[in-house]
Specification:
With about 450 residues, the chain is mainly β. The chain has one domain: Single-stranded right-handed beta-helix, Pectin lyase-like (Pectate Lyase C-like). The protein contains 7 helices and 34 strands. The chain has a 21-stranded parallel β-sheet that branches. Strands 5-10-13-16-19-22-25-27-29-31-33 form an 11-stranded parallel β-sheet. Strand 8 and strand 9 form a beta hairpin.
Amino acid sequence: MGDVKQTVFNVKAFDAIGDGQHLDTKAIQKAIDMAAIEQGTVIIPAGTYLVGALFLKSHVTLTLTQNAKLIGSTDINDFPEVFSRVAGVEMNWPAAIINLLTVTDVTINGFGTIDGQGPHWWAEYWGEDTKSGRRQWYDEHDLRWIADYDIKRPRSILVYKSDHILIQDITLRQSGFWNLQLTYTTDVEVAHITIKENDGPSTDGIDVDSSTRVHIHDCSLACGDDCIALKSGRDGDGYRVGKATSQVEIDHCTIHSGYGVTIGSEVSGNIHDVRIHDMTFENSGCGFRMKSARDRGGIIENIRVENLKMKNVQFPFSWLMAWHNQYNAKKAIDLKDKPDFWRAVAAQIPEGQSRLTQVRNIVVQNVTAELTADYTLPARAFDLKAFPDQPMADISFKAIEIEGKEFGNIVGVKHLQFDDVTVSALHDNQTSNDEYDNR
């Protein structure tokens, strides 16, 4: 990731206070700007630094020392809007706490923490009772499909159109929205980071979005949504951009909660050549997951998954090509007076192009999924559901042992091979489990 940086810029020398009360954005940004001139390192010493959006520059290292904490402001005005991509759609959106926009050779490291003050943003979205926030209006007006784009919240780290990026050792907690987003980015390593205490809406851990040559390893993740998600654009807007996610390796991570390792749901630009291996899942909702929607298009292919250990996982394999219809169904409304991003979200794949996602050439092997004696939640071994006119194809499960309560579904699959697969199923499928993650 570039030469060793020699010049060090301590943010205290630029009048950063670090008391958690005074806004330190300008002081820290000055240190970053000076470090860019010298290709140096910005040091965040022990302390609590209240900040809005910070913008890293090329050839800069940002080091959060032990007991250093960046706390994101709860004032949305401290996060100026920047053009990027949000949940598969290009649009203006509040900048993240840390932003890497069109930069090269940047490192974020150290053993400090970035805290998004998520409960503030989660309450704005859901309400304190998870029923009375801004989201309620969209539900009442049959506009679930636009709610997540219109209720804007800061991410913790955004990497956009950048290359040769290293992010290691830091802790991310309570993000307002996604924790770490990698979009249109190449040659990225994410190693030994911890993502925890994310109980809010859309608090994904790591999102790899239309990016290539990405290696994620030795991380610990506990999220309220997908812990690691691979994406490539939503519907018409994703088709227009047409950038795939490829050459991704994910290994030696531990998933503690959330929806596991996911491909989707935004896959319109294609996802291929992915290897996921040597992973541990404990008490998570899902293990290896794929999800898409009827009008999303895209191709998911050449995926290798092996050496997974799961304990108390509700859905070890959840592959749903018609996932969460309420979120994905864009109701016909008059958009002429709506913001541009409403039209971008509503855009469909052109007529004549395939709108059903193709899933093919998937190999899963060496997986164990066990349940402890005190486990009380559902446990569905397989939930593989595609369409008769676009079935998943060439799917192989080898050396799989699953302790489940119900077998689940296998629908719309062609050339499925089971080799040394053992499943325990104690009762019939429970229809209530068909609605999992449809909130």
